[in-house]
Amino acid sequence: MYTIEIEAVTEFTPEVLTLLGSIYDAIPEFEQPYSNQEISSRLLATPSLLLLAKIEGEIAGFKLGYQMTDEVFYSWLGGVSPDYRGLGLAKSLLEYQERWTREQGYSRIDVKTRNCFPVMLKMLINNHYQITAMTADCQHLSQNKLHLQKLV
Predict the structure, then answer these.
(1) What Rg, from alpha-carbon coordinates, does the chain have?
(2) H or E element: which one contains 56?
(3) Distance of alpha carbon 108 from alpha carbon 106, whole angstroms
(4) By residue range, what is the domain housing residue 99?
(5) Number of domains the chain is built from
(6) On the CB side of 33, how many CA atoms lie within 13 Å of its CA?
(7) Would you say 76 and 42 are in contact if contact means Cβ atoms under 8 Å apart?
(8) Beta strands in 14-143 (DSSP E)
């Protein structure tokens, strides 16, 4: 059995942003990654949360989000390294984020995913997220963006 730890970070120092960049780069699904500048501008502009999933002290995944309004938290980016998938890390990160948002006084979490990530979509639906909209990509149906939300 592995020792799993989730670390919460709410202060985004240059060191944390560098660490986030290296974790982000380790997730192969991020084919068109956001620039470090884009990530920094979103996180430094409003209250934000970075969750780091660690197995035996090694970073295995992350979940990142930020405040949209006083009531809404946006779950923006996340992923688990291919070497650590199937261990329930994504669900653990999701549940931690939900607890944290409730404790901070948010009433809703918004998230987006794409058709090409069926495991993520299934996890969200199984955790009572509701589809609220879809942004279609008529050229590539796998890139249809699904908008979901959950009251917390």
Answers:
(1) 15
(2) none
(3) 6
(4) 4-151
(5) 1
(6) 17
(7) yes
(8) 48-55, 58-67, 72-80, 108-114, 130-135
Closest Cα partner for 111 from 69, 74, 152?
74
pTM: 0.93
In this predicted model, what pLDDT tens digit does every residue of 10-64 receive, in sequence order?
999 999 988 988 888 889 988 777 888 888 888 999 999 999 999 999 999 999 9
Structure tokens at 94: 């999701």
Q: Which of 79, 82, 66 is nearest to 10 (CA)?
A: 66
How large is the angle between the packed helices 36-44 and 14-25, nearest 10 degrees?
A: 130
pLDDT of the residue at 129? 98
Q: Encoding tokens for residue 56? A: 């035996």
- CATH label of the domain that carries residue 142: 3.40.630.30
The secondary structure of residue 144, as a DSSP letter, is: P
Determine the Cα–Cα distance for residues 56 and 72; give it in Å rounded to an integer.
33
